[in-house]
Design a protein that fits this description.
single chain; alpha/beta; seven-stranded mixed beta sheet; 11 strands
Length: about 300
């Protein structure tokens, strides 16, 4: 996942200033108070409602009684400490740390030594999909519990978060998704969603890319189908996951610029139960766009849209 520094003003990528400037601290409320095109009025109203009432419901749904959060926080502190990176295994083989980018052809065989039902403690900006897939399968085989701290973006969110049967996200952690690149020239398009909801903004190889250049893309596509078929309930699940709200935002951004917006987004845990088999519990899902934007600024990431 690419990082961009200095996002004090979080703009919808590609939307001109005369249309809508979205401040990072309040995500559009100021923009809704300024002159905008008529087509944005309904969306602004929707945004206000979601931001006003959505966060409290998110918090209620993300909390889980009986979770030993201090022990998971202690495991994260161990992995923040003086351990080998990007991967390290504790002496008792109960904690496997992963801290860093997922690198092409990376050796992840250390995961085979993790104790059965041990902890996989991770922070990562993402990286190579094939390596993420391979490590995720090893974690599933060990029936590992995934513990996410600080940040988990791109391939980390897409694969590690749902690698096994359980995952716990510590408070203050930014988990964000974005579409993967094909490795060749991509073209954006709005396509019908499998679930019948708002259209999805997809990025896929352009029609004029020679077929012989698509072998890796097709291979990853098949592996993704297998991975998500094993880990999701909903046959209409599409990757990356997007709520109806996120789809509408991405559509507005794309239709305003014609370009694929360089943004990522969170995915509210209220959607997980019916979509994925992994039980993912947040200690505290972010409460607002302001909170997410503060994390973005601290981590020097591309803009991240908050899913209320």
């Amino acid at each position: 996942m690419s990082e961009n520094s200095n996002h004090g003003d979080l703009r919808f990528a590609g939307i001109s200033d005369r249309m809508w400037l979205v401040r990072a601290s309040i995500f559009g409320l100021r923009g809704c108070a300024t002159p905008v095109f008529a087509s944005f009025v309904g969306f602004c109203a929707l945004l206000v409602v979601w931001l006003t009432f959505g966060s409290s419901r998110s918090q209620e749904l993300s909390q889980e009684p009986g979770v030993d959060w201090p022990s998971y926080a202690q495991a994260a502190e161990f992995c923040r400490g003086d351990v080998e990176r990007p991967m390290s295994l504790s002496h008792d083989k109960r904690i496997l740390c992963f801290d860093g980018w997922i690198v092409k052809d990376q050796d992840v065989s250390l995961a085979k030594d993790l104790a059965d039902e041990g902890l996989f403690v991770v922070r990562s900006f993402g990286g190579d999909i094939l390596v993420a897939l391979a490590l995720s399968d090893l974690l599933r085989d060990r029936r590992a519990t995934v513990v996410v701290y600080d940040y988990c973006n791109s391939s980390c969110a897409g694969y590690f978060l749902i690698a096994s049967t359980r995952a716990f996200v510590l408070k203050g952690t930014l988990v964000a998704w974005h579409p993967m690149r094909s490795g060749v020239r991509d073209c954006p398009s709005l396509t019908a969603a499998a679930d019948g909801g708002p259209k999805r903004l997809e990025r896929s190889p352009c029609s004029d890319v020679p077929p012989e250049r698509l072998w890796k893309y097709e291979r990853v596509k098949l592996l993704n189908q297998r991975f998500f078929a094993e880990r999701t309930f909903d046959e209409n699940f599409e990757f990356p996951p997007e709520s109806p709200f996120i789809r509408r935002v991405l559509t507005i951004m794309f239709e305003s610029s014609g370009d694929f917006p360089d943004v990522a987004w969170t995915w509210n845990p209220k959607y997980y139960k019916e979509a994925i088999k992994t039980k993912v519990i947040y200690e505290a899902y972010p409460e607002s766009q302001r909170e997410v934007s503060t994390m973005v600024k601290r981590l020097h990431l591309r803009p991240v849209i908050y899913d209320p």
